[in-house]
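debug: dumping io for the single-chain case to check the tokenizer round-trip. Nothing else runs in this session.
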Amino acid sequence: MRKANQEITDPKTLEAILQKATIVRLAMIDNGMPYLLPFNFGYSENCIYIHSAPAGKKIEVLRQNPQVCFEVEDETATVKGDIACRWSTMYRSEIGFGNVEIVTGFDEKQQALDIIMQQHGAPANMEFDPKEVEFIVVLKLKIDSMTGKQSSNWNRLREVQ
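debug: decoded output
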């Protein structure tokens, strides 16, 4: 990373960003071209879970190549300045790499859906309609590596808020 002072290396901080975020952007390769989509997700134990319809372009692309890059961000804010070049952005984000697999077992799908729901504020152990669980596809992204970055003004501005 070019700006080493902005790199997030603390595993607990990286984990906290994943636990707090609600949208993940997943970059896939479709016939040699990037294909990027945003998703609601849930995070647990070094895995990102995404729900999907059983058919569509992303499923086709992931079956051809399960390797992906992902991006999430923590709080972001525009910091206004008195002149144009003094405006900036406060942010924390991370980018990572991994492989996606399709979850097939009913119990694992239900557990993954529960993880997704909890990520968005639902209580644990919600009841799911078994027909819905059977129909839906759950994608499990096993994270191989990730790096984080925060704006140079992150700590200073967080103290002011």
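debug: round-trip ok. The chain has a mean pLDDT of 89.
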